[in-house]
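Notes from hallway chat w/ T.B., transcribed later so I don't forget. T.B. wanted the structure written out for a chain they're using in a teaching module, and asked if we could keep both sequence and structure tokens in one place. Agreed to drop them here.
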Amino acid sequence: MVIIRTKFNTPLGNMSAAATEHGICFLEFFEDNRREDTFSLVTRRLNLPVSEGSHPHLTLLNTELQNYFAGKLARFTVPLVLPGTSFQQQVWAQLQCIPFGSTQTYSGLAEILSCPQAVRAVGRANGMNPVSILVPCHRITGKNGELTGYAGGTARKAWLLAHEKQYKGVAS
């Protein structure tokens, strides 16, 4: 088994993506300063060699990203491989439950996980998400609705949230 890596162009900039035979394991914006660190962590956790190229999961991801940015897709179907700690995986699973066009707070997510005192741990797990947009960490805000902490930058986070609100109820 191998990790296949490629690049995608999106309305918000170039993204780096990677997949195994089981699903997408990495998706980040090029300008994200921690992109290579996150990718190295994913490859270490999966313990697989990396190759540039194409893969059916990456082809599906490209199609779904295009539809998402066109306002035609609210839920991604491409399979995911999310190597992380048990707690990180719980956080990432809950992120995927936040409806398209909606937001949740760090403290609200901690409460959903029955860990109301773990707001910072939820924030760290949110920040370690290796699959931007697909696991919608951009839907998490500060308690007052403030756009805090997005590795792709708060301008991108604001754009993604406005985009989803615009197409809420339209995209399927």
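Follow-up for T.B.: The mean pLDDT is 90. Might be a good example for the class.
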